[in-house]
């Protein structure tokens, strides 16, 4: 059984995937099924043979993803310079599993790490190019952020109460005054007032694939929507550092306020997630403390 992260999570394991395929897609039923070790916090991914993957939502909050993928990924993919998931089929809810689920083409590669890159600065420029192409795609009919403080590419202010509560919970580990000063500096620049643009919304290491020393693919478009383009600048801190972070920023056409909003988003995501995941999935927040220190140093340098 896959370890659960959330209180409302359903039971998922490899035998369930085997039964679902046998019932709904019998032409794929004989494939060996194995869990992908780096599955995300919203979905569980299994490899089905060598060329397919199966993705199942963990909770009711993340259902509907495969429908979104089937609608939008075929439209986005031709305009993007890196590979993205190719949805092949949608599985129906059943007595055993209550949500729709998806079968995709398997994308080779390993999760992003700087030490897997031949040239981190070149990779930073490649990801900036991906973001540039994504933001240039027409947003007519695109999904937009729901009224939810966790929705990516949205104003920071609705997260204020959650952020302050997390800071209070973490006061024995971090200086609350430093965290709040940085947070308030982010709030001070205000919300994005320009036209919404396509963002991926979750450019974290597990969603950016590397092969042969280069970036090859971006996966998991659950948070893709038309929103504040600063939503994809989070990659500056989640993926890069030093020279590669500077290369990423220089390759993008952004203003100072977008950079500050993105840094505030990264800070708030990390601080709010830390108390929740350190008890449920410690590996998910293993690098939270150095990341927070890095963000605070960046804020101090601009102060």
Please name the fourth-level CATH homologous superfamily of the largest domain: Aminoglycoside phosphotransferase (APH), C-terminal lobe
CATH architecture grouping of the largest domain: Alpha-Beta Complex
How much of the polypeptide forms β-strand, as a percent range?
5-15%
Number of domains: 2
CATH level 1 class label of the largest domain: Alpha Beta
Shape: globular
Order of adjacent strands in the largest pleated sheet: 1-2-3-5-4
> Cα distance, first to last residue?
48 Å
Number of continuous helical runs: 9
What do you see in this structure?
This protein has 2 domains: 92 residues, Phosphorylase Kinase, domain 1 (2-Layer Sandwich); 193 residues, Aminoglycoside 3'-phosphotransferase, Chain: A, domain 2. Helices cover 38% and strands 14% of the residues. The chain has 9 helices and 10 strands. The strands form 3 sheets. A 5-stranded antiparallel sheet has the order 1-2-3-5-4, with helices on both faces. A 3-stranded antiparallel sheet has the order 6-8-9, with helices on one face. The longest helix has 25 residues. The radius of gyration is 19 Å and the shape is globular. The model has no long low-confidence stretch (mean pLDDT 91).
């Amino acid at each position: 059984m896959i370890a659960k992260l959330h209180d409302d999570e359903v039971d998922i394991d490899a035998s369930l995937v085997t039964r679902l395929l046998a019932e709904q897609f019998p032409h794929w039923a004989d494939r060996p099924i194995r869990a992908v070790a780096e599955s995300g916090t919203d979905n569980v991914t299994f490899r089905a043979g060598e060329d397919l993957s199966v993705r199942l939502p963990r909770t009711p909050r993340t259902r509907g993803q495969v429908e979104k993928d089937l609608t939008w990924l075929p439209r986005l993919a031709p305009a993007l310079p890196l590979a993205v998931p190719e949805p092949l089929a949608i599985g129906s809810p059943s007595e055993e599993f209550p949500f729709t689920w998806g079968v995709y083409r398997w994308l080779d590669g390993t999760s992003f790490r700087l030490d897997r890159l031949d040239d981190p600065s070149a990779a930073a420029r490649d990801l900036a190019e991906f973001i540039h192409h994504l933001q240039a795609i027409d947003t007519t009919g695109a999904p937009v952020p729901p009224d939810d403080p966790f929705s990516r590419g949205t104003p920071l202010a609705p997260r204020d109460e959650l952020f302050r509560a997390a800071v209070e919970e973490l006061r024995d580990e971090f200086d609350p005054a430093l965290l709040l000063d940085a947070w308030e500096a982010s709030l001070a620049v205000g919300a994005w007032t320009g036209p919404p643009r396509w963002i991926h919304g979750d450019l974290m290491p597990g969603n950016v694939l590397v092969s042969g020393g280069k970036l090859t693919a971006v996966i998991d478009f659950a948070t893709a929507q038309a929103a504040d383009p600063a939503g994809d600048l989070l990659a500056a801190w989640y993926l890069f550092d030093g020279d590669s972070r500077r290369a990423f920023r220089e390759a993008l056409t952004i203003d100072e306020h977008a950079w500050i909003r993105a840094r505030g988003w990264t800070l708030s995501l990390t601080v709010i997630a830390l108390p929740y995941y350190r008890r449920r999935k410690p590996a998910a927040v293993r690098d939270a403390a150095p990341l927070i220190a890095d963000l605070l140093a960046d804020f101090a340098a601009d102060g």
